Write the structure tokens for this entry.
Amino acid sequence: MVAPEPPRLRRSVSQLTSFSQCSEAYRLQKVAKAPQRPAAWYAMGRAAHKAIEDYENSGRSQTAPELVEVFNEAYDAEINADLLKWPDWDSWLTGGRKGGEQDVADRRVIGAYQVEQYIEYALENAAVWRVIASEVEFEIEIGGVITTGFMDQIRQHVDGSLEVADPKGGSTVPGSGVQLAVYGRAVEEHMGVRPTRACFIKLARPATTRGKAKPTTELHHDLSQWPDEMLDRMFRDFDKAERQGLYLPNPTEDCHRTCGVAQYCSIPLKGHMESAAQFINIRSREDYLANLKEVA
Ligand code: SF4
């Protein structure tokens, strides 16, 4: 008898990148669904994306104060929802020694500055490119794996060429262009043209006591370095590893400051909790459901 085909699961580029960074953290977050400590950087990134998307979708008709208001509303809503679940500021990740409450206040200022500065940057480049679509949902097949996601920006340059772009609000941007390469492939599937340009937009940072303000900049990636076979292989390998329950910790000295599930990591690191044992054997959806039944 021929064994039935395993069900095809939907994957995303953010899953692939998080799996590549630390597949143990991926397992705890997505498979075992362990509680994840909050961090204001998530709210800041999503709120800035929302404000920039609103700005571009409105035909750039909003003023800076209006856009800051959009950012603040989205940011406060996310922070307040997290605070209901995590009222103790000591639980919040900040990436450093700063307290959670201070970090939340600081990132509200940084995010507002970033969206204001985005307006300046977009207007300065108005004669060079325009955004023709933002937050475009896609579903494509890569290496036989169904891959879904949202493309942040598709731009058209004056010469007609297309560019995919993604604003990043953190102090670092991804070293790899895999996310942009997937967007490029999605654009080709939807519009019939493969973009020749791609960039991460590193959003501005305000001046601090430690240094001067930093402007909005672009970090370009060459999509010709991402042939289809390379992406196909990456998604196939990711899909295969997950189906086989293969997850490995990738510890760094900053884990306890940056990883929201460090307390449940399968290797004992700073902040490790006894209750980590409840998640250690959950390596598939079946394990997760069986564990739920046991707990009930
Ligand atoms: S603590 Fe470090 S090694 Fe463990 S899951 Fe988190 S990122 Fe991975």
Residues 76 and 213 are 24 Å apart (CA to CA).
